[in-house]
Amino acid sequence: MSPRQMSRTLFRAFAAFLVAAAALSAADAPTSTATPAPLSDSQRDFMRWRFGMFVHFNIGTFADRDWAGGYEDPALFDPSRLDCGQWADAAKSAGMSYVVLTVKHTEGIALYDSAVTTHDITLFKKFRNGKGDIVREFVDACRSRGLKVGLYYCFPGDYSDDAHRNAPPPGMPNLHGLPAEAAGDYVGFMKKQLAEMLTNYGPIDLLWIDQYANPYTGDRWQEMLAFVRSIQPRCIVLANNAKNLHDSDALSFEYPWKGDLPFSDNTLPAEVCDVIQTGQRWFWTEAKQPSDLQPAAQIVERLRTCNQRNANYLLDVPPDRDGLISGPQLQRLREVAALLHAPGAAGRSDP
Questions:
Q1: What are 142-169's pLDDT values in tens digits?
Q2: What are the start-end ranges of the H helices in the chain?
Q3: How many domains does the chain contain in total?
Q4: Is residue 207 within 8 Å of residue 235, measured between CB atoms?
């Protein structure tokens, strides 16, 4: 290659890099408040939900890690008093209108009996003799109390390494957040599981997708989005941390990660997710001192700020190892409810 040809090649590569960088910057930049297209009835309804509960619960609850790798001992999972009705009651008492359950997190274990893998709730022999279905219990509990149903599903990524204390055992493959059966066809596998979730449990109000822009399947997100909508067109699909209504039915802000909120004059459907526990801990951890939990007044202030900006506020309140929302976490939620429902309280956020 001549010096001139090399110079042209380097220039083209640099120009392509600048275009890609600009696209990434645009994707992460704050979104304009101008509505790009008419909102659907589901999106307009979503803007009235206001306050919800995020429920992180799986093997990570028992292995004391937020990013389980999928090789944890299934015998650890033993929520002897699990009661989804108690979760729903706690949410309802706090004035919440919807609840979102982590059906499959980074461990790849679905909380129901999936037809396309054995890496599911049937691994948990101590729970309902390996024949449980937490998704069914959860959906029924929410509906019986008039709460909207949200299901969370995590797309593939790089979740397992020594830094997260969950590196694969020697000689075993990295599962990347999905069962071994998904290897070689992540998209095809996820479509099958999403179809199970969206056909076996009736109408789902919200499908909460984490890691939608991951390096393994991110370029096929629009295909996945169309697939979900073909099954349940009225279901709100939220892509975590999406800042446009092309990739997501609502703008999404993972507050513990970036600490950002929608613009003060936002008019688009939006959601801010947050944690009741400090330290960015999503799965249950023992609260030993006041600083392990956010102050109730701070939670209420952020809720009101979100609602004033047309955003719902999804607060993670994880169940403990008995399968109950309990202890300081439950008490803090009750303190939040008391502040919200106090007579004459300004900016009440009742659904």
A1: 999 999 999 999 999 999 988 888 999 9
A2: 3-28, 41-46, 59-63, 84-93, 134-144, 186-199, 221-231, 255-258, 296-308, 327-341
A3: 1
A4: yes
